[in-house]
Amino acid sequence: MKWGILGAARINRSIIPALRAADGHTLEAIASRDAGKAEAAAAEWGIPRGVAGYEALLADPEIDAVYIPLPNHLHAEWTVRAAQARSGCAVCPPARWPTGSAWMASTKTSCPRGDSF
């Protein structure tokens, strides 16, 4: 599975080595809102590509899944966007989800591949 990371957060120091150690998984790209920051993070960690913008990474057909280490208040928004873009995703805990079951129902039905969480 080819992974991308949405954001150049400090917690990536924990996930990157674990992801690299997982059989059958490769880290292909890291995105940041700032192109320079994305390129710097890619160079620091030996990641093949730095991508300008989270949307660009989600639109990349070469990426199968994304890790989302964004601030808690952005977890729900970017998890939904990843699902809508056909990406699997892992969210840095603790994820904060909107209350009520309507959000989860809409997330499941909006995912083009039919994946559910």
Characterization of this structure:
This protein is an alpha/beta fold. The protein has a single domain (2-110), classed as 3-Layer(aba) Sandwich (Rossmann fold). The protein is 40% helix and 21% strand. It is built from 5 helices and 5 strands; from the N terminus they run βαβαβαβαβα. It has helices at 12-21, 35-45, 54-59, 75-84, 101-110; strands at 2-6, 26-32, 49-52, 65-68, 88-91. It has a 5-stranded parallel β-sheet with strand order 3-2-1-4-5, sandwiched between helices. β1 (2-6), α1 and β2 (26-32) form a beta-alpha-beta unit. The two termini are 18 Å apart. Mean pLDDT is 80; it is low at 100-117.
Number of domains: 1
Largest sheet, order of strands side by side? Answer: 3-2-1-4-5
Distance between the termini: 18 Å
Report the total helices. Answer: 5
Using the coordinates above, name the CATH class.
Alpha Beta
* Average residue pLDDT: 80
CATH architecture field: 3-Layer(aba) Sandwich
Task: Spell out the CATH superfamily.
Answer: NAD(P)-binding Rossmann-like Domain
Q: How much beta, percentage-wise?
A: 15-25%
How many extended strands? 5
The major beta sheet can be summarized as: 5 strands, parallel
CATH topology: Rossmann fold
Give the radius of gyration.
14 Å
